[in-house]
Design brief:
Blueprint: H1 4-25, E1 39-48, E2 58-63, E3 78-81, E4 88-99, E5 104-111, E6 122-126, H2 128-132
Antiparallel strand pairs: 1-2, 1-6, 2-5, 3-4, 4-5
């Protein structure tokens, strides 16, 4: 028969290994886009090449954090990448899905020209009155 201390040590080791395995399987969320007043930053999470006949390639991004704020966005609004004077238009909105209860927004957009968009890119939109300008 094994000493009680050995059994306890084995059980503790198994518990630690189990917890470590669970933590390594957990999905790590993408880094949060920088928050700038009047903007909605999000991460590109999906890219596709023509969903329908005659369609063009596009991208999907999503992010929460809207809270009670009304996004006030429209189809055709520009999607930007970069900050300050270095910000460039990289696409145009083609589909918006607002989950008011969760305070999140899904944004589908088509790239401008041959702009390369990658999964994990941080992009952003102007919100509210800033979007109309």
């Amino acid at each position: 028969m094994m000493p009680r201390a050995s059994v306890t040590a084995i059980l503790v080791a198994c518990l630690i290994a189990g917890v470590a395995a669970l933590r390594s399987d957990a999905q790590v969320p993408p880094a949060e886009p920088p928050a700038t007043p009047g903007t909605f930053g999000f991460v590109v999470v999906e890219s596709f090449d023509a969903k329908y006949e005659g369609d063009t390639p596009g991208h999907l991004g999503r992010h929460g954090g809207l809270g009670d704020q009304v996004p006030r966005l429209a189809l055709g609004d520009p999607v930007y990448r970069g900050e300050g004077d270095g910000a460039a238009v990289v696409g145009r909105v083609t589909n918006l899905k607002w989950s008011r209860g969760q305070g999140s927004l899904d944004v589908e957009f088509d790239p401008t020209d041959k702009t390369r968009i990658e999964i994990g890119d941080h992009v952003w939109l102007k919100l509210g009155d800033a979007a109309a300008k």
